Amino acid sequence: MPTAVPSHHRESMAKLHRAAEPDVLKPLLERARLTPDSRERVMDHALALLADLRAAQNRGWVNQFLQEYRLNSSEGVALLSLAEAFLRVPDPETADLLIADKIGDADWKAHSGKSNSVLVNSATWGLMLGRALVGDEKTGVLRRLISRAGEPFVRQAVGAAMKRMGEVFVMGRTIDEAMKRMKKPENKGFTASFDMLGEAARTKADAERYFQAYFEAIRAVGRDPKAGHSISVKLSALHPRYEVAQYDRCVPELTDMLAQLASESAAQGIPLTVDAEESERLEMSLDIIGSVARRPELRGWNGFGMAVQAYGKRARAVIGWADDLGRPMHVRLVKGAYWDSEIKRTQVEGLADYPLFTRKAATDVSYLACARDMLAAKNIVPAFASHNALTVATILDWAGDSRDFEFQRLHGMGEGLYERLVNEQGYHCRIYAPVGGHRDLLAYLVRRLLENGANSSFVHQLADEQLSEAELLADPVEKIAAVGGTRHPSIPLPVDLFGAWKNSGGIDLAERTILAETAAAIAASPPPARGRGPGGGPTLTTSEPAVEAGGPPPAPSRTREGVASAIDRASAAFPGWAATPLATRAAILERLADLLEENRIELMALAVKEAFKTIPDALGEVREAADFCRYYALQARTGLAPITLPGPTGERNELRMEGRGVWATIAPWNFPLAIFLGQTAAALVAGNAVVAKPAPQTPEIARAAVRLAHQAGVPEDALVLVTGGPEVGAALTSDHRIAGVAFTGSTPTAKKIAAALLEGNDRPLVPLIAETGGINAMIVDSTALPEQVVADVLTSAFRSAGQRCSALRLLLLQEEIAEGVIEMLRGAMELLILGDPADPRTDIGPVIDQAAYDKLMAYRDSAKAQWIKTVPVPATGLFVPPTMIRIDRPEDLTREWFGPILHVATWKAGTLAETVARVNAKGFGLTMGLHSRIARSAELVEAEARVGNLYINRSMIGAVVGSQPFGGEGLSGTGPKAGGPHYLHRFCAERAVSVDTTSAGGNATLLSLDEGGI
């Protein structure tokens, strides 16, 4: 569908999106600045509002909660953590573990009876009861009393406390209940915007349920249109694939659904507001909102609206866009709800700059500038969502006598701020009111508490008696002007994330234009000389030389003599390369990293067309290769320099790390650039010459990598490429001149290499660094958030067609939640798109070759009776359907199946340690995952798991160089870990030199000492 964002607005937003913070803030500072006269008026009004707010601190349950349980206290954190998970835990055993974990160490007794709120004190009493039973106290009347009542009594007490918290933040479990509650005296004069708690949908069923809930809520509110209530909707709740890569599918479907909801709202005569989402969805949401706003059937209905997040650098431009729609638009201005996740995503993706402001005061400045624009706009009906007395007072001053706008606050927050304005001065305030069951509410509740309880939040600051009124009401414009609008010093740009080495640059594939340009450039790149079509079939076959370097390749040959010739050349080059200063070798690696990024599209295209990587995976491949080069350059400079060792006077002792000779590096096809170059770069920077062998399926990307390495300054004979199959690898590893082997691949092949390195009595003992596969398990208990589990399982098991050594092979679900999680997984799997990896819409491409396809399909067919779910695939090509297979017990999976096949088994509550031991018993030790909200369970798994990489409450793939060093143990590898601080040493010979410095002329140093200060 055509874009609904006019070109001049789109250009403006593009310029602002990741612009430098000072540049974005400069015009905002001028727009938000108060004159001295207005500042005086605003302060007077803000002080009055502050007095009302403080008076209400003794009335509002949540205000008193925040006073009693600060979020920077152990009790506050424990309570939030308990609230986030407790009500979704179905089994008593895990519930007791969660209670013990969260409240067992906290000092609840110190809070007993301290609050003016009966609700706070009753919640504290419930928590204190729990502490008495599950904590370390062994004596006491209270413990004896509770022990008689038993653990069910504690669960009931804690459950009651959690439900009380839920009742404060949820307006009602149903829309009818919520509307009834709005009629209570405390809400007199206020209207509501009901949010049906539609978090992001994971399945079609989720989306359909949320759509129906919104539709029914609109009709329910429409039964009493004079009450003035409205409905808020989240687009991400209406479509499970609301992603830029799925634009052509999701935007038309969402536009149609939103139009239906808008038409019903118009028919019922009530307002409808589209909530804000993460910044990566902004342009999509504007296209959807703009298309609906222009629908002819909605002309004459003035109730359509949208939310704008002031923490975004594009916020002011979005307001300009909304004003230019040519129809009245309700705009709700909010500070923003996804700040921390936006910061992390930008860092993880290695993007140029942040899409939002990094200082709270900068967001306040943006909010005020946007508010001023909204008050002056022709077509905007403003709504200002704020709990900040200074912000409210400023808006009141700018608005003058006007009442053509409204304020908004969260249900359960900000009591006291608006009551006088509404009931005595005729202003309008709407309460943003969540509606839904308490179990569904909790993730939302915790997010709101964290958002409003953070140290920089006005609500939290208000509860801090240490802060003066002047500090509370300090002018954000002056604060930001004083620092020149600069970024927060503790939030570095992504490129500087790691400090000592440069983070690799990413491509913002969540920007539709950039994604399209990237895909077009990849499509336009020539196919590899030895390439295959998108389904895995051959497109071109050429003769393949066994030995290559810079310049023209030698005649095709797969003979042992050809490999020997390559080793001859590398052996001859070794002394000169080893004598090259360490700093020079490190600098060459850094130049290579730069060249990788300069040639990123060519390399990505090779990864897509030769290794069938999807576009995001191809980008990750180039980034990881660059990260290896820069990280190993740093590690070489800091870890391979000579070390002076202690000893007696008159003696010099030194330890040197030097190259061993010629290394063979043998890389797999699943990471044909990152692993190929990572192993090779490590060997080179340590001072070794290298004969590098890629997998036979992916020679072209290896050729490109070697060409760039030579261009960066590696001598052509110090890095020689050999290509071919197992016979070439065997010839390479059996040559006695090879001083070490770095191998990534299967466990059987690693064992063959290890055996070959021991053959012959005259062969030196040489190191083998092997990283192999694993039967990687993820353990999920009943405290885990199912939506998060499903997202991480899909990523871990099926991304890259399951062809990662770290991929999830065995999902172990606690019995009580197994069927629910499986059902959600089934629905989520239905949405996976298999196809051409060069197509941005594709989630999963083909497997690497016919042999892999045949092996996986034969196994899959043999287990057909145990299928839980499989999905359709394209009619042609080497596409293995993502398949979920049920097994009776973990022991039934005895080998690694290297593809998109996930096995599922269950475990009993209370047997976590035994379950980990059963996984350990398989002998593999690469990756393991755990999803749990119980910290002590995480500690147990951390202590007991025999794996190289343990991932807790996240996906199990995508280890980052320098942050998550990667490699396994047991049947999964030898170590040391790639991308870690100990890796380079394994490529070196350690040589100690001891020199007697007194052998000629005596100990001059000792003899020349002064009198030591006397």
TrEMBL record:
Residues 178-461 form the Proline dehydrogenase domain. It catalyses: L-glutamate 5-semialdehyde + NAD(+) + H2O = L-glutamate + NADH + 2 H(+); L-proline + a quinone = (S)-1-pyrroline-5-carboxylate + a quinol + H(+). Residues 10-54 form the Proline utilization A proline dehydrogenase N-terminal domain. GO terms for biological process: L-proline catabolic process to L-glutamate. Residues 539-550 have a biased composition (Low complexity). Residues 523-560 are annotated as: Disordered. Gene3D superfamilies: 3.20.20.220, Aldehyde Dehydrogenase, Chain A, domain 1 (3.40.605.10), Aldehyde Dehydrogenase, Chain A, domain 2 (3.40.309.10), Single Helix bin (1.20.5.550), Single helix bin (1.20.5.460). Pathway: Amino-acid degradation; L-proline degradation into L-glutamate; L-glutamate from L-proline: step 2/2; Amino-acid degradation; L-proline degradation into L-glutamate; L-glutamate from L-proline: step 1/2. Its EC number is 1.5.5.2, 1.2.1.88. Keywords: DNA-binding, FAD, Flavoprotein, NAD, Oxidoreductase, Proline metabolism, Repressor, Transcription, Transcription regulation. Residues 62-169 form the Proline dehydrogenase PutA domain. It holds the Pfam family Pro_dh-DNA_bdg. It comes from the Bacteria. GO terms for molecular function: DNA binding; DNA-binding transcription factor activity; L-glutamate gamma-semialdehyde dehydrogenase activity; proline dehydrogenase activity. The active site is at 771, 805. The keyword Transcription applies. Its cofactor is FAD. GO terms for cellular component: cytoplasmic side of plasma membrane. Residues 556-992 form the Aldehyde dehydrogenase domain. In the C-terminal section; belongs to the aldehyde dehydrogenase family. In the N-terminal section; belongs to the proline dehydrogenase family. Oxidizes proline to glutamate for use as a carbon and nitrogen source. This is Bifunctional protein PutA. It comes from Sphingomonas trueperi. The lineage of its organism: Bacteria, Pseudomonadati, Pseudomonadota, Alphaproteobacteria, Sphingomonadales.
